[in-house]
Each structure stands twice: as C-alpha cells, then as structure tokens.
Amino acid sequence: MSVDSSQFTYYVKKFGWINDFALSTAQAEADRRASSLEFVALERGLIDATKLDIIRTLQGRNEPINGYEIEDLLGVGGMGVVYRARQTALDRVVALKTISVKQLTEKTVLERFEKEAKTLAQLRHPHIVSAIDYGQQSERVFFVMEYIKGEDLQQTLFKCPRKFGESEVWEIIRQAASGLAHAAKHDVVHRDIKPANLILEHVDEAEHGHALHVRIADFGLARLSQATEENQLTSTGLVVGSPRYMAPEQIDHSGLTSQADVYGLGVTAWEMLSGEKPHVGLTVMEIMHEKLSAGLTPLIEMQPGYHPETYAIISTMLNRDPASRPTPAELERFPLRSLQIPTRLEEVDAGLGGDGLLDVSNGFD
Fold first, then answer.
1. CA-CA-CA-CA torsion sign (150, 151, 152, 153)
2. Annotated active-site residue in 53, 152, 192, 218
3. 204 a catalytic residue
4. What is the pLDDT of residues 204-246, one digit of tens each?
5. 8 A C-beta contact, residue 80 and residue 112
6. Three-class secondary structure of residue 30 per DSSP
7. Which of 108, 206, 212, 258 has the fewest C-beta atoms lying within 10 Å of its C-beta?
8. pLDDT tens sequence across 298-334
9. Model-level pTM greater than 0.90?
C-alpha cells in the first residue's frame, strides 16, 4: 500500500530527507507517469527502504506492535529505528527500537539486537537508559526502553560547540563514568561512547541539585569484557564502533577493558572543551593511523586557558596504553580539586574520606 503523496511530502520535509527542488521534480515525474511519489523517490534514490518503512509505520500502515502506539520518530541508527511510543497498558511514553527481519542479512545482526536488550535489562543505574520489554512480532523485532526527555550531546554541540564551561564538562564526564562503572561491574564494555550516545536529560534542578543529568544510550555494540572467542558477536578483524571515538585497542584488537570506554569519554571531553576533535584525519584509515602511530597534539596547544589538571586528566584518558588510563570508577570519583567541583553522588561520597575530593596530582594509583 502506497503512502498518500501529501503525507509522504510532510514527513520527508519534516525530517529533512529530501530538499524542495528534488521533491518537486519527483512529484512532476510521478504525475507524468501516473505513478506514486514514493515510488519515484525510491527509484531515484532520494529515499531508501528504511525511511519509507518509517513513514509507513508513522502512518499506521505497517502492522502495529501489540501493546504500543507509535507516536513519532526519535532516531535512526546502525541497528534499528527508534520511535517514541505509548505503552497502552500503563499509559506511559517509551522509546521503542525496532528492526525489520527482512532487512537482516546476517544472523549476527539479530543476535546483537537481542543482546543489546538483554544487556540493558541487567544494567539498572540512574545514568543508563533502562530496558523495559523485548519481543518479535510478525516481521519485526523490537525492544522497549524508558523514554528520556532531552537531547543527545551531539545535537547540543552541533547547535553550540562551546556550550559548556569547564566544570560542566567534568560533571557530564563524571556522570557518564558513573554509568560505565556500573556496567563494568557486570563486565560490560559499551564500545561506542560518543556524544550521540550521551543523552542530556531535562530534570528538575531543585530535585537533582544540578541541571545536568546524563543517561548513556545504545548498548548495541556492548560486549562482556571477558567474553570468550566463541561468544563474541563480531568477526575477527572487524572494527566495530565510531572511529573518531574508539580506543586504539579496538582497532588493533589488543584486548578490551572498560578503559576503552574511558578513551571515548576523553575524546568527548576534548570536543566539549575545544569545539574540535583531537584526531584530524579525514578518512577512517588516517584516523586509525593517528591513533596507532602518530602523536596527539596536546589540548593546551589547541585550547589554552583551562586548569592544568584538566589537561592532565584529558591526556591520561587518551593514553594509548589502556592500563595507563583511569577506570570508569576512578573517573566517577574525579572532581578537579582546585576547581572545587563537588561530588554529588552519595554512593561515591560514602567511599571517600575528608572533603570528598579525589586528589589526582599523583595519577590514579
């Protein structure tokens, strides 16, 4: 069943998928051929099957998932489409991630999708998006997560690259590290920490004590840090993750620990502080070469003016040797002493003495 041309036009313009000129040209071609606009757009490569499926889903033309009413599109990722939906039984808004079985070309993709749901199910933490439900209906596999009202850090930085002050940057990093420390306790490594996977939740400042509340999303590439070869869902030699944010050991397969996620946080912190990324390569191969062979220009040379301890910890987080980086748990306890950033997490304060501040002048021993 085709989508009405006016509805098709509304959605492709809403999501910015087709510009006005290309759309009007496609419409003229559809009128000339007495064909549907969606068919011509698909034929011309203006839209792909996934986006067309999204439009049909939002219009209720695809088979609904029992118990959920889809309301809007939240995002499209490498392993699925995320919608805002309403769980009808409890009348609550949720995030529903779905993937079409028809689009699966490899069994491992379905296995990863299922594994993400199961991984999230065991991770209950204030700084991790929680899983609610998982299932398969007809030709769709789906899992449901709590809906987080806010925007991801990538969207924020795109609109305002230097939005956050030094203290705010470390508050974001420390909260993310808190969630990653919890994951590490379950031997889970996220493997794709980047601004797009850090959601800045809109919270009541009076209730939380601060306006920033970070939630880690998308555990689609997560794996157990001690996973045996037969349990890994990525092939030997396959690089999985986002090259600009992945740790060197993810590239050369030299072993994976939670410090790989710390590296991703280091790149993210660098980006928030400078408005730029630390690696300047234009291609994946150039970026990999920089990470494995070339030296990194110190942040202080690119963006002077921050506290010396900021430069020191950034350098430590981006150390090529994972054993020389702090663990997520150590970062969780990390405020800059001289900036007097308070530790707001009660469970962290309970583990520290004195002023509740961690002295990093001698590293993370």
1. negative
2. 192
3. no
4. 666 655 678 999 998 866 665 544 333 333 433 444 458 889 9
5. no
6. helix
7. 206
8. 999 989 999 898 999 999 999 999 999 999 999 988 7
9. no
